[in-house]
Amino acid sequence: MTTTAADQAPGSSAPEPTDENVWLEEIYGEAPLAWVREQNARTEDLLEDADYVGLEGSILEVLDSTDRIAMVGKRGEWYYNFWKDQANPKGLWRRTSWESYLTDSPVWDVLLDVDALAAAEGEEWVFHGATFLRPAAGDPYRLALLALSPDGGDANRYREFDVATRTFVDPADGGFDLPTAKGNVSWLDADTLLVASTAGDLPRTASSYARTAVTLRRGDALSAAARLFEVPEDHMMAVVAHDSTPGFERTFAVDYIDFYNRSTFIRWDDAWLEIDAPTDVNLSAHREWLLFRPQQDWSHEGNTYPAGSLLAAKFEDYLAGARDLLVLFAPDAHTSLQSWSWTRNFLLLNLLRDVSSEIRVLDPSVPGVAADGAASDGRAADGGAWASSLLDACPPLHDVNAYAVDDEDEGPADGGAGDDFWLVATGFTTPSTLMRGSLTRNPAGTAGSGGGVAGTAGVVSSHAAVKASPSFFNDDKYEVQQHFAVSADGTRVPYFQVASRDLVLDGQNPTQLSGYGGFEVSRTPAYSGTVGRAWLERRTATSGGPGEAAHSRGGVYVVANIRGGGEYGPSWHRAALKENRHRAFEDFAAVAQHLVHRGVTSRERLGCVGGSNGGLLVGNMLTTYPELFGAISCGVPLLDMRRYTKLSAGHSWIAEYGDPDVAAEWEYIKTFSPYHLLKDGVEYPETFIWTATSDDRVGPVQARKMAARMQAMGIPNVWFHEALEGGHAGASDNRQAAALQARSQHFLWRSLAGG
């Protein structure tokens, strides 16, 4: 491959390498799409055999199962759900009562049939959610803005919908109907929206997101709406939102400078007031509280708060200049904060301890308690300023998350659900269970009862199962183990292994290694009927040498928790940013080597799979560690790191990877740009690259170019497939999702297990 200086970008000090495949960057061009169709036909001829047909049908059966949990969200007295199945591939938006939901066969009130809407309007709508207008006190929730994507991409059309009449509010009668665009929408009041959008003549950032927010009055055109907020073009995006909580009504705007830096503003006396905090400290508000989560260690008023901690201050006091912060959570070497959720009176913290869930309940009304039981000076034995109790709901090697049912409802003393919470528990061999619980204060300060909170904080919880997913494979036959590999710099890297209980450690087990390693995204235990059926339960051909008993074996599934992710908080993520990106790849390679060292598998039997940033990960396994893998499945990937900032939303990821237009940064970026690392004379693993035409986040271009270059170099067994719709997920309905997953799984099995 030639890399001579050509087409230097304006203002750039980093020369552009020659790129023979630039013509494939015209996403909907006639010639590129002809190439796509040719590649699709070639790949389908290879993969779509009789085994594939059965596999796709088996996966679709999982996705379309009517026994799945219908997850709900509460608004007023109703519980809302969006549901897809075989009869409704685009889905139904529907609701039911709590009493009905508790039954085995809830009675659903269908509000919108998306398949019928698509047929009536001749548009392949994909439902992306609903945002309700808060009604006047005592009135039911009625008006909502529905986000509908024409192709499954990130750009949505927002349309006002009346759940009472089950119809869209006609624009001729003043109904809101916003053109398809990237952005966000928030209700200010019944006749006013706050809109950040790229529609029409509204400017967009270099990252392709909304740069400007406007105030849109009912009946007015978006183009004529008054400008409200704007960010510089080289920032990532503008977001506006109104908090309508009674008594705490506030309007916010956020200038997302990049993925990890933002400035937050509040509307104050008809002007924007910036909330004083470093841009790498995330802010969130709840009633009277303002929470802070620093991405890096924060030195503040003589104290240093570690990255990943959670801090609190009274909202009004902080705006008035007070700077005293309460420590609610401080991370340690094993424990990180993943998320939090407020009920009306309590704060739920979802933690990971060595990638297994732990949940704590904090009570703002009770000070933290020191180890001796005495009231402390604001720091409890577990590091928090508020009384903290462990929620007894998390078995080892499982993922359990708690979040509020409806924090805006009345509290339990008034008969409301304001302190109720959902618990969703899952594990690799444990089908998901939905539980509901409630938190109350115990004046006596005794330990919790009813299977909930232990300790002396005076919080009582009761929670019980509401719904459970069925088993889609014989999960009792499989065992989950956690192991630790040692990376190149000595860091211990955890990974999960799911395999048959009678696994033979002879290096001959077909093994699928999955990872992500970016954007502080954590890979946690999760039940997958697809993985169970398509990989764990699939069997190799019966074999046995002279004097040996004939036997077959199933697949081994492995998830690596490499740096770049969020499993150990922001520091784990930042350890693999920009010039340190190689650490994520070294971690993944270390896990691969550990699997071989332990006798689980061998190079010929080991494959890896990743999508999006995970596609970049496995692309680097392909080009930098080809000797470790027999096959690679690379989905919706970043691969051309020289031009990624110029393609789709790529400019928004400079904070993660660096800027290739800066010569000094290109020097390290080019070391993990798979498109530029391909070499002649290398024995590369069998490779399947897949993407979607309508992906407006990463886009299909990088996948196209990588496959084209590999094929032109004469590298054997390189396959490509591009779905024509489905957005970044690669699928907009269950059938498309089943086909996508079946192709990837079938390719890996054929390559690693021999059929």
From TrEMBL:
Keyword Protease: yes
InterPro entries: AB_hydrolase_fold, Pept_S9A_N, Peptidase_S9_cat, Peptidase_S9A, Prolyl_oligopep/macrocyclase
Organism: Pseudarthrobacter sulfonivorans
GO biological process, one term: proteolysis
Domain (Peptidase S9A N-terminal): residue spans on this chain: 18-363
Region (Disordered): 1-20
SUPFAM superfamilies: alpha/beta-Hydrolases, Peptidase/esterase 'gauge' domain
The keyword Ribonucleoprotein is assigned to this record: no
Keywords: Hydrolase, Protease, Serine protease
Domain Peptidase S9 prolyl oligopeptidase catalytic residue range list: 551-752
This protein's GO CC annotations: cytosol
Protein name per UniProt: Prolyl oligopeptidase
